[in-house]
Design goal:
By secondary structure, this protein is mostly helical. It has a domain of 287 residues. The chain has 19 helices and 2 strands. A two-stranded antiparallel ribbon has the order 1-2. A hairpin with a 6-residue loop joins strand 1 and strand 2. Helix 2 packs across helix 3 and helix 6 runs parallel beside helix 10.
């Protein structure tokens, strides 16, 4: 095949000592910045962007390949260890990953995440090389109505899956939608819920909300229980670093399922990797319930880490393909990469392969090299990162608070964001106190603007005809799947309530 010969030429260009060194440096720097709570892969690319401007284009983009995927690998590390994901794409990984860490299996969770990131990125990059034109056709079939249906599907499906109570899940979703409405309406220019403050015109940053709910909320929750439960803040750092054969066999289907979720979203501008990671997590939770897997939601399940991590990195890999072939930045990190191309006088798109084919194929080859290097680094460092949990609890949680504040302040240099961080942290504390799930809040904040914009665009195009929202096969299929998921979730919750009441009556009878 023609693509294979071009890729071999790319490997020939990438396999030089200098280029391998740039990939390694980029991978180390990207991982190091991505590990920091509140920074993430996009921050890694933004902070390290000026470093590459003194290099020639080939060396610069090879280093960017390492930074890009290194940041993705690092995003989940802080989430697993400290319950503070570096980016929205790592939120779903955090749920089961942090449970594994608290049960003494931090290194195992990190190894599962590293392998999932490698498998997802490898499959996606391979598809970019050979099948990008076919996936691009799928992306062009989506219009405003399809994007709105996709967002609604993600809203309701996730809210009903991640919570023990559908009502609490939908209430949490409502909280997230309210937070997403803060700021200036992009279409009318009207301010909403800003209370007259100009600093709220841009809305609340997803970094503020994510770090507040997950990190600061967890710190406050642990602090409130520390005297009643001295072990509440103790996270053991022991555990196996390498995955056993049984672990690998168990996680492999989850890695592949997660990759299947992530690949299509890499070419669909639907909010980045958040939707596929949450959908992959929800799927694994449903499958765990069907199997009777008691680890999921208690001590932590490696499938709950494997699937979201593979989904996030396969989305990232396909996003680079969409950027190179279409000039379409799917995520914030891809947008920064596009800015880097433009800095060198290049415009990503179909003509890039004709005008700068040598650079593009060398860059694609460096993706494969970078993924292998990152797998080696992260598998070796999984035990080292887990040693962070040996830090005395009072210093660790104080450090989480300081790094959270620093990460939020570094994004906007705004004091008011720190006050909002504290307020949302208190909200996260009360949500934990009364068993409200935080995942629906986060997915609503991330996808709320996308849903609103596409709803209004669809109604504008159809001149107010609501029927246009279900006028295509794709929307009909998504709403039908949503209806089935809701009925299934309702029946499942009703059965669990009946079982709980039955067990309570039996205990009462026995005690009497």
């Amino acid at each position: 095949m023609e693509q294979l010969s071009f890729l071999m030429e790319g490997f020939a260009g990438a396999f030089t000592l200098a280029n391998l060194l740039w990939v390694l440096i980029g991978a180390l720097l990207g991982t190091a910045v991505g590990v920091l709570p509140g920074f993430g892969s996009s921050m890694a690319v933004a902070l390290l962007l000026p470093v590459t401007f003194s290099l020639d284009p080939t060396a610069a983009f090879i280093m960017f390949a390492g930074i890009y995927f290194g940041g993705m690998f690092g995003d989940s590390t802080a989430g697993i260890l400290l319950n503070t994901p570096g980016a929205g794409s790592a939120i779903a990984t955090t749920f089961e990953g942090h449970r594994l860490a608290k049960s003494g299996q931090a290194a195992r969770a990190l190894a599962t995440a590293a392998m999932g990131a490698f498998i997802g990125g490898l499959i996606a990059t391979t598809l970019v090389v050979f099948f990008a034109p076919y996936l691009v056709k799928m992306a062009t079939a989506f219009g405003p109505a399809e994007y709105f249906a996709l967002a609604v599907f993600a809203f309701v499906a996730i809210s009903s899956v991640v919570s023990e109570s559908i009502i609490k899940g939908l209430n949490a979703l409502g909280i997230g939608l309210v937070l997403a409405l803060i700021g200036i309406d992009g279409q009318s220019g009207t301010s909403r819920f800003t209370m007259g403050s100009q600093q709220l015109f841009d809305g609340l940053s997803i970094i503020v909300i994510t770090v507040g709910l997950l990190a600061l909320g967890e710190v406050l929750h642990v602090a409130s229980r520390i005297h009643r439960d001295p072990n509440a803040a103790r996270i053991p750092a022991s555990g196996r670093v390498l995955l056993s054969r049984a672990d690998f066999r168990k996680a492999l289907p989850a890695w592949l399922r997660g990759t299947a979720f992530g690949v299509p979203f890499g070419v669909i501008p639907a909010g980045g990797a958040e939707i596929p990671t949450f959908l992959a997590y929800g799927t694994e939770k449903r499958l765990a319930a069907r199997r009777g897997d008691t680890e999921f939601g208690t001590t932590g399940s490696i499938n709950g880490v494997a699937a979201p991590e593979a989904a996030g990195n396969s989305t990232a890999g396909m996003a680079m393909g969409a950027l190179l072939s279409l000039g379409l930045p799917i995520s914030a990190t891809a947008a920064l990469m596009m800015a880097a191309f433009q800095q060198y006088g290049m415009q990503p798109g179909p003509l890039l392969f004709e005008r700068s084919g040598d650079l593009v194929w060398t860059l694609l080859a460096s993706f494969f090299i970078g993924l292998v290097i990152l797998l080696i680094i992260n598998m070796q460092f999984a035990g080292v990162w887990a040693k962070l949990l040996l830090i005395p609890r009072q210093y660790l949680y104080a450090g989480i608070t300081v790094l959270s504040m620093l990460g939020v302040y570094a994004v906007s240099s705004s004091i008011i964001d720190l006050w909002f961080l504290l307020a949302i942290g208190i909200l996260g504390f009360f949500m934990r106190r009364y068993n409200f799930p935080v995942a629906p809040v986060l997915i609503a904040v991330i996808l709320g603007p996308l849903a609103e914009t596409n709803l209004r665009n669809a109604l504008t195009i159809s001149e107010g005809d609501v029927g246009a929202l279900i006028g295509s096969p794709a929307t009909i299929i998504m709403y039908a799947l949503l209806a089935v998921a809701l009925v299934y979730a309702g029946l499942k919750h009703a059965a669990e309530r009946r079982r709980t009441r039955t067990e309570a009556r039996v205990l009462e009878d026995v005690s009497s």
